[in-house]
Amino acid sequence: MVSTLTKKKYSADDSKGSNKIKFINHSGIKYLKDIEIHGSFIVVEGPDASGRSTQIQKITEKLEADGHAVVNAGLKRSDLISKGIIEAKRNYQVGRRTMALYYAADFADQLENKIIPALKAGFVVISDRYIYTLIARSSVRGINKNWLHQLHSFAIKPDLIFYLNVDPYNLIHRVFKKNKSLDYYESGADLGISADIFDSFIKYQYLLKKEFAIMQKKYGLIDIDGDKHIEDIYDQIQSRISEFLNLNKHNGTRV
Amino acid sequence: MVQVIGNNNPNNIKNDESGVLIVVEGIDGSGKSTQIHLVDRWLNSKGYDVFFTEWNSSETVREITSKGKKKARLTPMTFSLLHSTDFADRYEKNIYPLLRAGYIVLADRYIYTALARDTVRGCDKSWVRNMYSYARKPDLTFYFRVPIETAVNRIISGRPKLKHYEAGMDLGLSKDEYESYRIFQGRIVDEYESMVDDENFIVIDGTLEIEKQQNIVRRHVLRTLKLKNPIQGHILE
């Protein structure tokens, strides 16, 4: 009996290699390359008012009910830099490349100080948006795609990436329900594509949609029909998460 | 005419800058700032349109960077990205438009500082290189070569305490600040030296008298100005 237990313990140790942190680019963050990950990493992408926070809330509740410890992360939440981003945006004085780097710095801070430590400790980390939004936003603003992909290649690979794909006309109604007005940047007003903010919003959201379509294959985004009912979307997301977590449980290691 | 490092010139902007970009590089205490200051005074006295820019000096970014530095909570990646943000801000706002307008832009440290420092801190070199790939290649890059001890002594003698990141304390090289600083600077020198040929650095012996160094530097500047802009170059004689 004792010997089998010991054996099992050893074989579990042997499989540790598969727990190694995985970066998008193989070189990643060089000084963190030996870290071992014990948690799971889920990303929810999609435009404002696409229902991201509702879904994240539901997923979190379910995971916690099932006994998983969850940490929520997202863009613009690092206390180191976020304030600077808000100020920079407010005075409209910052160039587009500068902005892209600013966001990347903020993201790196969160990745290293929040996401990676939580994954190391075995938490399920759910990120409200990830590098894909950062890439898409800068890409439609004329920054070289290759440069953007490489810039963000130090990010770690999520286990599951859900993209809430919502039709822009549908989206605009949801935004109005929420705020009664359109956000300057979420409408792409700084792009000067239309003097009319409604037109600008629709055009801008189509441009972003196109960027996400391009990234879908490259990064393995799971396209979720965001025009469906909240419960239908949740069922779809939930079944993918359960499937993933069960697979890991049976294998004893992360995929 | 313009050389762009890498192949992704941003936004397909027409490359019609007529300005001249002059850069000084070297470790702290190598004397580079003194030299570029003298070039600045000289060109100004001759009536040129000159713009001087310094590493880590963008007002928008500096505040946040220094906050993080004080708390000593920057990682090599955030350190690298914030300096890159600072550079991009100065590049988009000043350096690039001024070069297009025909200015002589003098830069105290340029992308090579990032390539050297960030690599020493453990960031991937090709990743750092990509981050700065949009930056125009300088017309002249002066690299001030000094023995590490000379540079370190110049810095330490005037200062009771070294700053955390300046001394490379985040790298855990040594518990002693001064020892850490020496090792850190030594590694940066190795990085600089590895770039001398590929990046066409003009190596200046930083142990020479200040006036002697300045003479050599001015000769190079003069030649470049004549080449790039014969009319302005003529004024200098």
From TrEMBL, chain A:
Gene3D superfamilies: P-loop containing nucleotide triphosphate hydrolases (3.40.50.300)
GO cellular component: cytoplasm
Catalytic activity line of the entry: dTMP + ATP = dTDP + ADP
The EC number(s) this enzyme carries: 2.7.4.9
Gene Ontology terms describing biological process: dTDP biosynthetic process; dTTP biosynthetic process; dUDP biosynthetic process
Domain Thymidylate kinase-like: 44-180
Alphabetically ordered keywords of this record: ATP-binding, Kinase, Nucleotide biosynthesis, Nucleotide-binding, Transferase
Gene Ontology MF terms in the entry: ATP binding; dTMP kinase activity
SUPFAM superfamilies documented for this protein: P-loop containing nucleoside triphosphate hydrolases (SSF52540)
PANTHER family given in the database record: THYMIDYLATE KINASE
Cited HAMAP family: Thymidylate_kinase (MF_00165)
Family per similarity comment: Belongs to the thymidylate kinase family.
Protein name: Probable thymidylate kinase
Automatic annotation (TrEMBL), chain B:
Enzyme kind, highest EC tier: transferase
Binding site residues for ATP: G26, I27, D28, G29, S30, G31, K32, S33
InterPro entries recorded: P-loop_NTPase (IPR027417), Thymidylate_kin-like_dom (IPR039430), Thymidylate_kinase (IPR018094)
GO annotation, biological process: dTDP biosynthetic process; dTTP biosynthetic process; dUDP biosynthetic process
Single GO term (MF): dTMP kinase activity
Keywords noted in UniProt: ATP-binding, Kinase, Nucleotide biosynthesis, Nucleotide-binding, Transferase
EC assignment: 2.7.4.9
Entry GO CC: cytoplasm
All residue ranges annotated as the Thymidylate kinase-like domain in the record: 24-214
Reaction catalysis annotation: dTMP + ATP = dTDP + ADP
CDD domains hit by this protein: TMPK
Family designation: Belongs to the thymidylate kinase family.
Name of this chain's protein: Probable thymidylate kinase
Gene it is expressed from: tmk_1
